[in-house]
Design brief:
alpha+beta, about 15% strand, about 25% helix, about 120 residues, globular, GMP Synthetase, Chain A, domain 3, 3-stranded mixed sheet
Length: about 120
């Protein structure tokens, strides 16, 4: 009889490396109306990784009426779930605090001519 294999707990360094890979993936997802990725736009509020490599992402949209409000969260979940080492991904949409352009990275503001 085989004993069940229990995954080892992730070290803080493991989590850091996995978070970097998740963020790299988030930087490959673009808002269709703005030529900047969702991470640099400031749409990602939180990335939490459990000891079991479950990734929970809290994000927003540029507006509640965003045309990709239905498809973007699923796309983000699917892409993050495909990152090597991730066991699952879940996206939670929030509008608190509401997004505004000051949440964008400096690079995104430069790209869009806000600086």
């Amino acid at each position: 009889m085989h004993s069940p294999i229990t995954p080892r707990e992730m070290t803080p360094e493991d989590k850091k490396h996995l978070e970097e890979r998740v963020i790299d993936m988030l930087k490959s997802v673009y808002d269709p109306e703005i030529p900047v990725d969702i991470y640099e736009l400031g749409l990602i509020y939180e990335v939490n990784i459990s000891d079991e490599a479950h990734v929970a992402i809290k994000m927003t949209l540029t507006s509640p009426a965003c045309p990709v409000a239905e498809s973007l969260p699923g796309e983000v979940e699917q892409k993050v779930a495909g990152v090597p080492g991730v066991t699952s991904a879940k996206v939670e949409i929030t509008f608190e605090p509401p997004w505004d352009r000051t949440m964008m990275s400096e690079a995104a503001q430069l790209e869009l001519g806000f600086m």
